[in-house]
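Fold it.
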Amino acid sequence: MKYEIREKDKFRYVEEGVGEPLVLLHGLFGALSNFAGLIEHFRASHRVIVPILPLLDMDILHTSVGGLSKYVHRFFETMDLKGVHVLGNSLGGHVALVYTLKHPERVRSLILTGSSGLFENGMGDSYPRRGDYEYIKNKTALTFYDPNMATKELVDEVYSITNNRLKVIKIIALAKSAIRNNLGEELNQIQVPTLLVWGNNDTITPPFVGQEFHKLIPNSELHFIDKCGHAPMMEVPEAFNSILAGFLAKLKSS
C-alpha cells in the first residue's frame, strides 16, 4: 500500500483516517512499510499519523534520542496534537518514552513494542559492516522470528544505508545514545496508561526487557506474542492489532 507523504513546514508525514490521533514512531532501520498493517486497520477508527523521523539527516550534535524527542515535540506543536496515543517500535519506543516523560500533558496513552530504553542487544558499534551484503542480510533476519521476513527489498535498503560512511557514523551515534540514555530510574514517573507488546522470540530486546518495563511503569499491561521477533506489528499484524484495539477500546470506555 502506497501512502501520500504530506509536508507541513519542514515535516514529512503520512496521515490517514479521522478520530483520536494515533502517532507511530519507527525505529532505526524503520520505514512506512513497517506500519502498513497498523495503518490499514486503525485508519477506520483513528487519525493515524506517521512522522518520517530524520534519523540520519540531523546534524551529528543532535543525532540522539533526546534530539529526536525534541523533533517529535516540534512536530506535535506544528500539527497541534493533543490527547495522543503514541506508539513506538525499537528506537521509536525509546523516543516515545522520553517524549512522554517530558510532555505528559499531550499524551493519552503510550504503546511500546520491542522498545529500547532499558536494555538492547543493539546494532552496536560493530553492526554496520560496510560492503558485506551477507552479513547485513543475516543481521536483518535476526530482527524477526521468521527470517523470510527479511525480504531482498528490506535487506537492500539496510545495505544501502550501511554503505554510506556518514550514515554509519550517525547509526553508531544513535545506538550509543540509546545505550547511554537508560530510563530505569525515571519510568515510575510515567502515569499514562501504557501497553507493552513483546515478541517471545525477540533477540534484540528479549522478553525480560518487556517484563522489566512492566515492573517499572505503574499503569502498564504486558502482552507476549509467540513465534514473533523484534517487530510484532510487522511480523504478526493481526495479533498485534487485536491487542492494541482491545487496549484502545478499554481506554475509550473508561
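The two ends are 34 Å apart (CA to CA).
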